[in-house]
Each structure stands twice: as structure tokens, then as C-alpha cells.
Amino acid sequence: MNRPVYIKAASSISPQHSYEAGMLLQPVVSSDNGRLYVVEQDYRKYISPVAIRRMSRLLKMSITAGMQCLSDAGVSPDAIITGTGRGSVSDMEHFLRDMIAMKEEALNPTYFIQSTYNSVNGWLALQTKCTCYNQTFVHRSLSFELALLDAQLTLGEGEDMQNVLVGGFDEMTDYYHLVKDKIGYWKKEALNSLDLLKHNDSGGTIGGEGASFFVLSNDSRDATSILLALEILHKPTVTQLQNAIAKLLESNGLEPCDIDLLLSGINGDVALQDSFDAASNMFDSSTAIAAFKHLCGDYDTASAFGLWLANYILSNQSIPEITLLKQGAGRPVKKLLMVNHTISGDASLMLLGNC
Amino acid sequence: MEDFKVTLKQQIIDSLNLQGMRPEEIDDNAPLFGEGLGLDSIDSLELMVLLERNYGIKIEDAREGRKVLQSVQSMADYIEQNRKL
Amino acid sequence: MSEKIVVSAAGLISALGHGVAANMQAIRNLRSGLRYPQHLRTIHSGEFVMGEVPYSNEEMATILNLSPKHHYSRTALLALLAMQELLFATDIDLLRSESLALINAGTVGGMCTVEDLYPDFVAPGTGDYVKYIDTLDCAESTEDIAGFFGLKPLMATISTACSSSANALLLGARMIKQGVVKRALCGGCDALSRFTLNGFNSLKNVAREACRPFDRDRIGLNLGEGAAYLLLETESSARERGATILATFSGYCNSNDAYHPTAPSPHGDGAYNTMQQAMNMAGLKPSDIGYINAHGTATINNDIAEGSAIKRLFGDAMPYFSSTKPFTGHTLAAAGAIEAIFSIASMQQGIVPPNLNFQTPMEELLLIPTTQLVENINIRHVLSNSFGFGGNNVSLAFSAS
Lengths: 355, 85, 401
Fold this sequence. Notes:
The structure holds 3 protein chains of 3 kinds. By secondary structure, chain B is mainly α. Chain B has helices at 2-16, 41-55, 62-68, 72-82. The radius of gyration of chain B is 12 Å and the shape is globular. In chain C, strand 1 (5-14) and strand 2 form a beta hairpin. Chains A and C meet through helix 3, helix 4, helix 5, strand 3 and helix 6 of A and helix 5, strand 4, helix 7, helix 8 and strand 7 of C.
């Protein structure tokens, strides 16, 4: 949907040092075991000792990223909207395993409560005393995009709606990794995560996790970047993807050469290579190309980390070397197109501009 | 009985993940809920799971549950009389 | 002011049977769908009554003409049957050719299947079961619906616990109002699972016998299962194609308690604000409301909170109100859509479903729901409440077309 909304703040707890100072701090983190875990933070900053003792990792990192984002923006939210592929997987697995092992007797309520997909939303409302609109999307690799779409709708609904907290979060667990391995999610060969994109002749990718939050606003003051348009594509063919990109650019009065940076959700899976090539080939040599899944791993809401990176690049006018696939003309980054390709075959487009 | 209460306190600390707390810091007769340890309704359900898993005690009636879970002392007394494990 | 959104088709399945007509007939006959489960395999099957849909998976697959090798979970089968009813009454080519959203809701997706196979999932090796690995996602049923009926909609899946499908409905209306799509199929589905049963049982709020909403001696909820979908579009779009308008979707509100992870605020402030704002959007005052289909789970906390809110908001202008959960059980993600359809159908038929099993009012409120079937009355506006964990409250207002 073409509805410009401003990004006022962004906060991401990711496998990289993204949280501490809101930038990609050195050193770059990598892994050799096929998955990336977030850099754990001091979660007691925003969560009381009474509340924190029962919380799973996902709850802690998501609540913290959300609260930090609001603090950076200096606003209280008029709505809280999130997307998650699996919510607190560890709680779900814990309850399910206990239920099977204990033969349906004497089960801990905490795991059940927290396995509910909207438990992060409930906590964020509680922490911020935000009694307004509260929504959770759980549509696989489009979960975060649907939250963004809802934020666009919400900000279009009148003067009362000024600041919306939007987030995407998922966690990696051993069981989740094992189960998804059985349906070909992960690469069979050993590799360093930073080399992921070079291994694009085999199937699969590496696992990841993270929690990224944004304050989206109708108000341009102090904005770090602007999300101009969002497009959600269910299992597009290569041609449909190209047509969607062309249409998105056209409806925003842009030519391919106006795009300074193409940020790709390519994940090393050979099955996505055609789709990546097709998108890249629409742009000439002056457009730089960058990628991010070798830094955060792949997970249902990895595009939220992608948006965090896009916002970082636009607000700092600096493309981290570690993300660059193609240099381009080295222009200032005024217009950025993120194309997210996902394992499920779904895709999304986000057009952003600098402020 | 004194030894058992220390064991029970440790089980409570583990079950409720009361990080950094030691058994000797919990008074036998201090109320567990409200002002005492500041526990809430979900904690009381967790403590009932503790009773069921460790001592085979199933409490169905919420009012009885509240009575049993008043303090470490009341829990210990109840366990002594009703334990099946 | 944006154009009116209307409901132009509906379909559902619940413990009362398949189809809106069968469900409403059961309500008129005061026939509850609660019983000991026949299909859910649990050690608690002789302990708790539930609102189980009276078909096995095989029977549902037969009705849908599926090959025996199909991959659908019970959740998806329920969703397909509910949607099938809706589509019988709709020009499916129109839905295929014009812009459409499919907004589905679930709380545990295909957990009913996954919980049987999980030991295999996490053991070494592989097998035929791998085709069910992704059925755990709530989005699986959404994509199953689109695939089965050959639709290519913008798809979204919502999960906000017990208010999930009420949220699906209001999102659909908002998407249409802002021109994202022309029509939206909105609703939710959940099948009974051991996971959910044991989860609620770990909270000690599942009743063994039929639940007693708003009663002093209420002892908890009964779980249920089902699916329901409604077709939303603008009034002019429905009129242009000569569709029967079932009701106007006149108001809605989603707001949050911001009080506790699972319990509602005791005075029902959240429920009060949510109903109030839904009525405001519809331009209605309390005396305009003819019937409230309450959330009424019969848990200690919900009923006192919701009851307080209803009493404060409506005072002397108390409309008919009842919980239909003693008929269907609490169908979780499907509840909002099922009860929206009950509310609309009641308005159309001029009846009020009774709140079964009520005997004694709560001492704190002295509030008495509608306990007998009311017939031959004129209702112009109804409210349907759905409140979930995480303080997620939704009220929907529907008006006679």
C-alpha cells in the first residue's frame, strides 16, 4: 500500500551488536554451526524483577527492544502492532513436551500462557499502560509485513493516531532447528555465516532470530527515514515479482535508476537465486546492492531486521561494508528498495526514503 | 521438619525462579502472597504444580488452595499430612 | 465519512452442527452441543464436557470430497467446511476476479495434529509425518482455504487469543474502508487439542459440567471447537451485485486492558471502554442496543469484569444479553466470528438466544442475563463481545440492514 509513514525510532536485538548504540557495532558476529543467536542484553532495564523471573528469552528480548524503541522516540504509543512467525516457541515446546511426558498431569501454566502468540503484545500494553489498539499477526514470513500494513491503516484513521509501535520477533531453539531441518530449511554443508551468500548453489539457509521494533508516525519531525510504500506478495513467480517492483516504482513516480540501494533478503538458498537475479537485473550498475541475512540468519520476521538496517543506512548515510554485494555509483542513499525473498516463497517490497 | 522446610523453600525458589533468593531469607510464617514474597495468582498455580509433582498432592478446591499456600509453614504442615510421594 | 460496511454472506461449523441454519435451530430447540468428546484423544475425555464438532476427521474429509491422502489438520477441515457454506451462497468467480482479503484467525493452528506427531518430529530420522510439520502455523489453515477454493486473496492471519476472529472482522472492515481490497473474508478456526485443554486446565478454569455464565456458582469454561467466516464489502458493492445484506457492520473497537497478562481488570474498565467505543463508532447509545452476545466464558474473572462493565454501561437501559458458550463451548479463535453470526442471525430472526444454566446472580452485581428463548421481537442493533489473554478486548456492533 502506498501510504507514507515516518520512522521515528528503531531498536533491534539481533545476532549483531545492533542494540547497544543503535548501530552495527564491531566486531561483526559470525557462527559456524548453522545458526545465529541474539547478543543477549541486560533485560532488567525495562522489566521488573517480579515479572522477569518467569519470562522466556523471546519475551525478554522483544519487550526490551520495544520499550527501548519507545524511549528513543520519546513517545507513548497510540497502538501496538506486532508480527511473529511462532511467538515464544520455547514456551510452546516446553508445555508440549511436558504434556506428553507427564501424560497430561501437573503442567506449568506459565509455559502455556506465554506460548500464546500475543503475550509480548499484552506485556507491552501493560508496561506502557497503552489501552489502545493492540494486534498480533502470525502469517509465517509475512507476519511483520502485515503488522506494517496494519500500522499504515492505523495511521490513516485520524488525528488521534500519531505514533504506532510496530515490531517483529522470533526465536531459535534446538528443537525448532531440528524440526525445520527435516523439511530442508538449513544448509547441509558446514559454513561460516558470513559466507552464506557465496553458498548459493545449494538448498537451504542458516537459522536466526531477533526482535526489532519501530515507532511509525504521521509526524515528520525528528524522523530518521520514511517508509513510502509496502507490497505483500504471496508466492509470486519471477515475472510477478518483477511486475510488482515496476508497478511500485511507477506508482511512486520513480525509475529504476532512482533507487540508490537495493537491500535484498537473499538467504543463500539456490531456490531463491532466480528471484534475486530477476530483481537485481531491473537496476543498472549505479544502484548499489546489499544484503542482511548473513548477519541475522533467516527466520519468519527477519525482514524486521532488514528494515532496521535500511533505516540505519538512510539515517546515517552509510552502508556497512559487511552488507555490500555491489558497490554501485556511490551516490547518497535517498531511495532504498528492500526486496525480501523467503523460504516459503512469499515476498515483500518496502520502498523507503531519507529524511 | 526444619530440614524439610529448607528443602521446600528451595523447591519454591526453583519453581518460581526467585533468582538470587536463599532459603534462609524466607520466613516460615511470612505470607507468600501479597506483601510477603509478592507472589501472584500464576505463582499460586505453579505452587500447586509443585505439590502435585513432588508430593502427589492434588488440590482441586481454590479455597483450600489459598489456605494451604498461606506460608511455608502451612504448606509444610499440609504436605506432611497428605503426601503420597 | 466512509461508506457503510455490510455482511453479505456467512458460514460456520460448531458443536451445534454445520451451517448457520442448523446452529440457529439448535439454539431455538435449546439443544446444547456440550458432551464428553468422542474424537479428541485425551486422558481427560470422561472428565470434562466440551463443545466438540460431531464429525470425525474422516467424515469431514468425505463431505469435502478429499482424497484419503490429504494433508489437512482438523483445524483446516473445520475451516474448509465453514467457508464452503459461505461460498455456496456467493458468486465465487467474483471473489476470484476482484480484489479480496482473506483474514483468518487461530490460536494454536494445527496443534491437534502436531501434538500426536511431535515425538516423531523431534526424534532422529524422517517419515511421512514431515508433511505435517508446518501445519502448526496458524497461517496453514489460511493458505489451505485459499488453495482449496482457488482464491488468490491478500492473506493475513491473526492470533490474539480468544478475541482473534473478532479482530479479523475489524481488520477486514478497515482494509475495505481504506481501499486496500474490495471485499474481505474474515473469521477464525480452532480445533480441540490436548495442548489447549491442558493449558486451560493448568490455569484451573475448566469446568467439568456445562458452564454457567454470569452465575454466582460458575466454575469455569468449557472448551469448544469450530470455524466461522463472514464476507464483508461496502454497501454499494453488495447492492450493485444484488447480494442479500445480512447486516450492517456498524461499529467496532479493539482496546487493551493493560492490566494483567491473563486476568481482566476486575471492574471491567477495558470491557466498558471497548463496548462504549464500538457504540460510538456506530452512532448508537445504550438504549439502541437490543441484544448483547456476551463473551461470558463462565470463568470467575471474566464474568465479574464483563458483568460489571455491562451493568455500568447500560444501567436502566439493560438490553437482552446472554452468553452462547453453554451451547458451543468456548471456541477460542473461532468464537468472535461464530458469535458475530449468532448475533446477526438472532437479529434477523427476531430472537434472543438464552443464557443456559443460569440460576443465581453474582452477589456483587445482581445481574440477570436472558435465561429463556425470546421470540418475535424487533432488534435493530446488537453487540458481540470477545475478550482475550493479553488484555485484548474487542466489541463488534451490527445493525439491521
